[in-house]
Design goal:
The chain has helices spanning 4-16, 24-31, 56-71, 92-102, 130-142, 153-166, 184-192, 241-251, 267-277, 312-318, 322-333, 337-343, 368-380, 384-398, 400-408, 410-418, 436-444, 458-471, 478-491, 498-503, 512-524, 532-539, 541-555; strands at 43-46, 75-78, 109-111, 117-118, 146-149, 198-201, 210-215, 219-224, 231-233, 256-260, 283-287, 290-293, 299-301, 364-365. It is of the alpha/beta class.
């Protein structure tokens, strides 16, 4: 005996999609070749909407997805979900693709930084896949899993107001789903009159039922099943995220969907859609968002409107080394990354194995002090030439005056950056390339102010500088220089070291550090700088004498 309901659904599908041949969905699936990947390989994707700038949270999700794919010898896809044409921003696809490229996040398939596409499972722009969504939606309607809804906005508003008055759950479901059991004949009549419609899923869930759901970040969860007849195809012919991502993930054979936990509440709907189509359900990992502590002490998500650091351009403009931001994000993803880095100081971060079950459940707190510490460590491990090249590249985009000086004084600049960069004790005064100019400004321009420490009198400062000018030689080795400096300090009444001073503080005017501080301020105008001996070697004897003479003149 024929299944009249199924027959009605098939008729309905043919009325809604008359241009799509019967069996087209099966043909597409048959033509899709299984991926030839090793056992355990993950196929992941990052699928942003081009509705604005690239969010640091997007980079965070993309980085995790890319690492999970590549550490399992799998495939990472960049797919652009550009079906919301009203919110799409011109040039945003390029911003996304090139922004990820600058972070070294390279898709194996999908949209590349030059906006070309790679891969055999495209197209990778959803706006170019509209026919595919219609083909499989016809299949879903034919199976009795979806139907057209002709409700107007006014009708939906009235239904919602009634639900609120009756204090029942709002939405389009069950008895409130006016067109849930619409006949093929009525649909044909409405279409003939030119009425617009959306296509909704015919949910099988009931209020109160639970779905046992395993999330790769949050573990075993009991979620309310989907009981809403959500829209799958809008009246403009574009699919909603719910439908498009299911079709795409099925056809691209995505094994792991790694996305923000704001989508966790939609997971039951997505599971239902995969089940209705008979497709393999990917494993889901809902990652906690990046959060910050605001001025009121409240923890909240990074805001596109309020927080400049939400935009990845902020990090490019400030000049944070990309590897530093990447390593900081990896530490947010897995807190054991810091311990791993400590044990593997010279290993590339790609060697670190990201684990979804070690991810933050409640929210990854973004701390700029911590980012600066990570960045300083990375810059400290770089060579002078690497630092110079990075600063120069940053300055070309952000500081036209500084770039001229760097290009004109290339050898000198590299000598400056090489100070405290070859021994065990590495300088850590640069966290981002925008710090570099201030960090070395006293090499570019001699200080005009000479502010004495309260520990040293003007007379003693003058005596120190005059004596230094007599005995110092920038060609001296570090040991010879230190020996001379200690002798000079003792001759002027200062202790040769802190330990000696503490033994009998009243016997000395101060310590060797106080003497060095006078010379440091004379040469740089600052109380905190890298190694004095190495700095003087870079300055050269003439410049050292000129700056000392200028400081003596200031003392009167």
């Amino acid at each position: 005996m024929a299944n009249t309901n199924l027959d009605e659904s098939v008729q309905l599908a043919d009325i809604l999609f008359p241009d799509i041949p019967v069996g087209r969905a099966a043909e597409i699936l048959a033509a899709s070749k299984p991926r030839a990947l090793p056992e355990g390989a993950c196929v992941t994707r990052f699928a942003p909407s081009p509705t604005g700038f690239l969010h640091i949270g997007g980079v965070y999700a993309a980085l995790i997805s890319e690492r999970i794919a590549h550490q399992t010898k799998g495939v990472f896809i960049l797919r652009i979900e550009d079906t919301d044409k009203q919110r799409e921003v011109e040039g945003a696809i390029k911003i996304i693709a090139q922004g990820l490229g600058r972070f070294g996040i390279s898709p194996d398939e999908g949209v590349l930084p030059d906006l070309s596409e790679a891969g055999a499972y495209g197209p990778y722009l959803q706006s170019e896949r509209l026919d595919l969504y219609r083909v499989f939606l016809k299949e879903l309607v034919a199976r009795g899993g979806a139907y057209p809804c002709f409700c107007s906005t006014e009708e939906l508003d009235i239904a919602r107001e009634t639900q609120e008055l009756q204090k029942v759950k709002t939405g389009y479901y069950g008895r409130w789903a006016k067109h849930r059991n619409i006949s093929a004949a009525e649909v044909a009549e409405r279409l003939a009159r030119g009425e617009t419609y959306v296509v909704r899923v015919k949910s099988r869930g009931a209020d109160g039922e639970k779905l046992q759901f395993t999330d790769l970040v949050k573990g075993s969860l009991s979620l309310s099943v989907n009981d809403q007849d959500s829209i799958l195809l809008k009246s403009d012919g574009y699919p909603t995220y719910h439908w498009a991502h299911c079709v795409d993930d099925a056809l691209m054979q995505t094994t792991h969907v790694i996305r923000g936990d704001e989508w966790l509440s939609s997971a039951p709907l997505h599971v239902e859609l995969f089940e209705l189509m008979g497709w393999t359900i990917p494993q889901y990992a809902h990652i906690a968002p990046i959060v910050k502590i605001d001025e009121t002490g409240t923890k909240r998500k990074l805001s596109k409107r309020k927080d400049p650091e939400a935009n990845v351009e902020f990090y490019f403009k400030e000049g944070y080394p990309i590897s530093a931001v990447t390593e900081y994000l990896l530490n947010l993803a897995n807190s054991n990354f810091e311990d791993w880095r400590r044990e593997n100081q010279n290993a590339p971060s790609e060697k670190f194995v990201v684990r979804l079950d070690k991810g933050s459940v409640s929210g990854a707190l973004f701390d700029f002090v911590k980012l600066a510490d990570v960045s300083k460590e990375i810059v400290a491990r770089m060579t002078a030439n690497e630092v110079y090249s990075a600063v120069l590249a940053w300055a070309r985009e952000n500081d036209s005056e500084f770039v001229l000086w760097l290009e004109k004084n290339s050898d000198y600049a590299q000598k400056i950056f090489n100070i405290e960069r070859e021994g065990e004790k590495r300088r850590k005064d640069i966290a981002k390339w925008s710090d570099a100019r201030n960090s070395i400004e006293y090499f570019i321009t001699a200080p005009t102010e000479f502010v004495l420490s309260e520990k040293v009198s003007a007379a003693d400062a003058r005596a120190i500088l005059e004596k230094v000018s007599e005995v110092i030689n920038v060609e001296d080795t570090a040991d010879v220089w230190l020996t001379k400096f200690r002798a000079l300090a003792v001759e002027l009444g200062f202790a040769p070291d802190t330990k000696t001073f503490k033994t009998n503080p009243t016997a000395f005017k101060g310590t060797l550090g106080d003497v060095a501080g006078v010379l440091r301020v004379a040469l740089t105008g600052r109380t905190n700088t890298p190694d004095l001996h190495q700095m003087m070697q870079v300055f050269g004897m003439d410049e050292v004498h000129a700056r000392i003479d200028r400081a003596i003149a200031k003392l009167g």
